[in-house]
Amino acid sequence: MSFTFIVLTNFYPAANQAMQYAAGLAHKMQAQLVLLHVKRASLFDPYVFAGDNWRQAELDAEAPTAEVMRELVDQLPVPATVEMATDLLPTMAQSLMARYQPALFVLGRPTEEAASGDQVSGAALDLLRAAHFPLLLVPVGSTATAPPHHIIIAADADGFRLEEKGRFAQQFLTELGCPVTVAHVSEVEDDDACAAALQAVHNSGLVDRNQHADLRCFQHAHASAGILEAAHATRAGLIVLLARQRSYLGELFHRSVTAKMLEHSTVPVLLLPAVDVPVSEATNERTDLGGEAEGLLY
Q: By residue range, what is the domain housing residue 274?
């Protein structure tokens, strides 16, 4: 499988760092890059009433921007294509998926001081997360190198299955060829839940059973802080989070943990879409411990 990464980019530091990080990954994996430049990200088309003539006029006015983007491509160590659009809409994201079949979308995360409510990257992140696309978020100022030298996978004790859009991940992790650690965070010491977390990762196919993965467990009242502690303790260069569809209340909690991770992590975060696997469908059933002490949802 040949990978393609779509990078949301502009001329500012966060996007530039995301582009350079994606280029480092692509160079290692002989992947293709698509540099996507948009002015807005929205659920609704602002030209739905004005018509495509106005949209085309706005695109035509961006000819100088497109020329500079093409110059950026010439400076990259891997092949890249430039895509210019006025708006990143759900329909456009689906169209990009169909045309390029990308492994993931790559976005930069600006500093808290530089972030603003109308920033394209924030709106794009929300839009792409809602559509369950695989995402790689690169925080500006991160010292993490691409490719990473160590990866942690944050996992709880519940079984999961990667959605179709995220099934590239096993080959992705294998081709990176660096050590992998499964990190489990719980409020109390629970060896059974730790072992179940490792088993869940293997059962999902995210890490092949023939590929060694270390297991590290951390006790913390807050899942996001525990995962960040795990990343620091293992000197990880990439954190893998599972974006699972859950019940309404479970999804609210899960999204809050994910949001904190995306906001505070100093190393890149790979967000993979996944679904829960009922115990009856698990490859190896484990005894139900009952209650909520098995682990924290990610």
A: 151-281
